[in-house]
Design goal:
422 residues; 16 helices; disordered N terminus
Length: 422
């Protein structure tokens, strides 16, 4: 009987709503920090390219380290979250991310750059699995499709990070700039970590009810001399073959989306500077336009999902992103390219959040890890693919591959509309 009262107190305490609010703020902060640090690195890629003397293809192979490190550690991180909890794993990964972002400016060859980016990518991929897993639990507890708002914070952090990078690009060396980002990351983590470490991931209301009913049934069965059931806890995710297939489907949508995000992050600024003759500051502002558009799209994502549903959001978003990226890659004028980047950002905004949220709802941290691994497989494929295509053809032609995969994401969303039922 004491176990029943303890469960009821935890799930229905008067301050439970306040706990969810504090937890949402803390997770939003970590999403924003992740975007801020990543964008700060992205806008310094042209300077580090010159520092290392890398060609487009060798730079692409070096940038492969980010995605390779992410993909290698993502499935492992999913298991860590299942064992130790997504909250402490998020905090540890935030520390590692803040430390590793300071390393790229210390390199002077493509090989050395690739090695340190492997570490940076491992931290980046791990924190993405950890805080997305925590966000999936919170979304289920809130019973509203608020996942896009967390990713809006990531995009907002990216916009601020890219904007700051553009401002200091002409006056501050990459070494001092990225060292500053690392210090900011450690300070933000120190201030935000206590909220996550003091709270366990919330359970959705139906899981809490099921836990209480199971505990009550356990006390009744004990009085009847029956064997005690399993301890009260959230209903585990059952990975049926159909569930696995759906997780892979969502992962493919994430792959197509992450390919586009990674392409604009790694090559967008270089396209504006190299092909359209922009200054370093304007080139950095190109990613800011993309990040701002994604932020706006994700801030309105909850309303969009409630009105259109997941399937139509994915189909329309993929089509808009394809059109925008064709403009961004092929337009001969700088203003038109910036407009195309913005349209592509609006289209891509909610595809990845929807894919990860649905995979996590179906399969828990392992679903988030699977969809994220496939998603960052898109980033794994993107840097070298675009680098080689830029050598063979041109960088603008290579960037049209983003439009192609955005169209593929829309097609997958439409083809699986009955299976996903959303």
């Amino acid at each position: 009987m004491p176990q029943i009262n303890k469960t009821r107190t935890r799930d229905a305490a008067p301050g439970h709503g306040n706990d969810l609010t504090r937890l949402r703020i803390a997770l939003t902060t970590f999403f924003a920090l992740d975007g801020f640090i990543f964008a700060g690195w992205v806008v310094r890629i042209p300077a580090i390219k010159e520092q290392t003397g890398a060609s487009p293809s060798t730079l692409g192979l070096a940038l492969l380290g980010v995605s390779a490190g992410a993909v290698i550690t993502m499935m492992f991180t999913g298991r860590l979250c299942s064992r130790y909890g997504s909250h402490p794993v998020t905090v540890v990964c935030a520390v590692l991310l803040s430390l590793s972002v300071t390393l790229p400016p210390l390199t002077h060859s493509a090989a050395a750059l690739g090695a340190v980016l492997l570490l940076f990518g491992a931290a980046y991929g791990s924190i993405n699995v950890a805080f997305n897993s925590a966000a999936v639990d919170l979304v289920a507890a809130l019973r509203r499709p608020v996942m896009p708002t967390f990713h809006a914070a990531f995009s907002l952090g990216g916009m601020i990070g890219a904007g700051l990078g553009g401002l200091v690009a002409g006056s501050l060396s990459p070494t001092h700039h990225l060292l500053g980002l690392g210090i900011i990351g450690l300070l933000v983590t120190a201030l935000t970590a206590p909220t996550l470490l003091q709270q366990e991931p919330p359970r959705p209301p139906e899981s809490a009810t099921a836990a209480r009913e199971q505990a009550t049934a356990g006390s009744e069965d004990a009085t009847a001399g029956r064997e005690d059931p399993a301890p009260a806890k959230a209903t585990p995710h059952r990975l049926t073959p159909r569930t696995r297939r759906l997780v892979v489907v969502f992962g493919l949508i994430a792959l197509c989306t992450a390919y586009g995000e990674g392409a604009l992050a790694d090559w967008g600024a270089l396209h504006l500077r190299q092909d359209l003759g922009s200054s370093a500051g304007v080139a950095a502002a190109g990613y800011s336009c993309f990040a701002l558009a994604m932020t706006v799209g994700r801030l309105t994502g909850t309303t969009l999902l409630e009105r259109l549903g997941r399937t139509r959001t994915v189909v329309i978003g993929g089509g808009v992103a394809a059109a925008g990226m064709l403009i961004g890659a092929l337009a001969p004028a700088l203003w038109a390219a910036l407009l195309g980047y913005s349209i592509a950002g609006l289209g891509l905004a909610n595809l990845f959040p929807v894919a990860v949220e649905r995979a996590g709802a179906l399969a828990g941290p392992s679903g988030v890890a699977t969809a994220s691994t496939l998603g960052y497989g898109g980033m794994l494929l993107g840097p070298p693919a675009i680098g080689f295509m830029a050598d063979w053809f041109s960088l603008p032609a290579a960037l049209t591959s983003v439009a192609v995969l955005a169209g593929v994401a829309a097609a997958i969303g439409f083809a699986t509309r009955r299976a996903t039922a959303g």
